[in-house]
Design a protein that fits this description.
Strand order of the largest sheet: 1-2-3-4-5-6-8-7
Strand content: 25-35%
Distance between the termini: 52 Å
Helix content: 25-40%
CATH architecture of one domain: 3-Layer(aba) Sandwich
Number of strands: 8
InterPro entries: AcTrfase_RimI/Ard1, Acyl_CoA_acyltransferase, GNAT_dom, MshD_Acetyltransferase
Keywords: Transferase
CATH class of one domain: Alpha Beta
Pfam families: Acetyltransf_1
Shape: globular
CATH superfamily of one domain: Gcn5-related N-acetyltransferase (GNAT)
GO molecular function: protein-N-terminal-alanine acetyltransferase activity
Oligomer: single chain
Protein name: Acetyltransferase
Order of helices and strands: HEEHHEEEHEHEE
Largest sheet: 8 strands, mixed
């Protein structure tokens, strides 16, 4: 009898989380205003991959830390991955990706990049907050990410959004083997709201 009750609780709990995640992942393509400028937000598709790789090249000095196959594999995972792209005048300016783990109740930002000429305009903050709100909606506990030890600008943004430094991954990055700083956001405490959007 106890086993049946435990199984029912697990079934009910995980189904509720799955339903919430499915709702959170239903992205309607729409326009947003960030710091007075209009942009178009959509869920990433395979046709966006060439432009996503172009964003990576612009951000990472001609390199693409993730290749076409890596992005294609991520976009195939409809149940536990969410990738968003942002455009202006049909130009892809940036993207964000996140993984979602129902068992640990943890979301993880896998990748975020904005082309240099559109950085410091609130776009990165907007995309990160979009993922934060999705994770909160699903009733997750934490949102995590890694950031290069040398990327002080990104660290400052994440700290401003409420992330805390929680550890270091030694020689984490492929190629130059730079250390990564682990950062974690306690979603139960996050009460932010990007003031630049409408």
């Amino acid at each position: 009898m106890l086993d049946k009750l435990i199984n029912w609780v697990k079934y009910t709990f995980f189904n509720r989380t799955r339903r919430l995640r499915e709702q959170a992942f239903e992205i309607q393509h729409h326009n947003v205003v960030i710091e007075g400028q209009s942009y178009f937000i959509a869920q990433a598709t395979n046709t966006d991959i060439p432009e996503i790789l172009a964003v990576e090249r612009a951000v990472y000095d001609g390199q693409t830390p993730w290749d076409r196959m890596a992005f294609a594999n991520e976009l195939r995972r409809k149940l536990d991955r969410l990738y968003l792209v942002i455009r202006h005048n049909d130009q892809l300016l940036g993207f964000i990706g996140a993984s979602f783990d129902d068992r640990s109740k943890q979301a993880h930002i896998t990748n975020v990049a904005i082309i240099p000429e559109y950085q410091n305009r609130g776009i990165g903050s907007y995309l990160i907050e979009a993922i934060i709100k999705k994770a909160q909606f699903i009733e997750y506990k934490t949102l995590t990410l890694e950031v290069r030890k040398s990327n002080i600008t990104a660290q400052a943004l994440y700290l401003k959004l409420g992330f805390e430094k929680t550890g270091i991954k030694k020689r984490y990055y492929f190629g130059d083997h730079e250390d990564a700083i682990d950062m974690t956001l306690d979603l139960s405490k996050w009460r932010g709201g990007y003031r630049g959007s409408k």
